[in-house]
Amino acid sequence: MAKKKDSDARGIEVWSSNSRKVQEQKQKQERKRKQDLRQLAERVVEKPMPAIVLVSKRGIRKLIPKKRCDECRKLPPEGKSLMHYSKSNVGPVAICDLCLGKVQDRSWRPLDTLDYSWGGGSFSPK
Question: In sequence order, what are the beta bridge partners of 13?
Answer without folding.
Answer: 7
